[in-house]
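Run log, item B.
One chain of 248 residues. Sequence copied directly from the ordering sheet:
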Amino acid sequence: MKPKVRTNITKTKQEAGAAAALLGAKLIREAIRKNGKANIIVATGASQFEMIERLIKEPKIDWTRVTAFHLDEYVGMPITHLASFRKYLWERFVSRLPLPLAAFHYINGEGDAQKECQRVGAIIAKHPIDVCFAGIGENGHLAFNDPPANFKTAAPYLVVHLDEACRKQQMGEGWFKTLAQVPKQAVSMSIRQIMKSKVIICTVPDKRKAQAVKDCLTGSVTPMHPSSILQRHKAAWCFLDAGSASLL
């Protein structure tokens, strides 16, 4: 069945990540030229390794005019933990850019999670997003909106409960040694906030994502397959490799 979202299929995850970064960089430059600035969302996880590695090397991006947000962070997760998304983004993205960002608005899950949702939600409300870099989880989640995802809330961020499939994925990717170590809650950007982005670029490599890709890109739009909501976006792209596209 033909995907209902724009797709770019390459042989390898390296090629998929490079293609996603190439498009993202082009859109960031265009936003800066048009508006004098760009606002972006950057994703984390193993699926983003190749995309981020290429994006930070893209030429002629004035990063001092770019404000960035990220999608999610575990509740109670110290920034020093291997699995911290703040740590991930500092080490793989922010600290490696040739110029400093205008700002990076990290999610801090170590304190009052509800207050943190309100704090970062108030900031992103003032920053229309030009490009959202994202992924699709093995259970079809978008950010940490696991099934059944909340498609209705207008809150930019919310506290979510992580299902077992999601937590097993985090362990399987090597962020945790045991399932018991994986937090059960996270602060996540909401579905409706993600969908406000002018362009959404999903990088989704690996055969373990193939079923989720098929369900979300060719099936009906349903909270049980959260990333299926991308079918309703006017400018959503999915960059796949041979493995993740194998069931299309």
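Observations after the first pass:
- The longest helix spans residues 13-35.
- The CA atoms of residues 145 and 226 lie 7 Å apart.
Flagged for discussion on Thursday.
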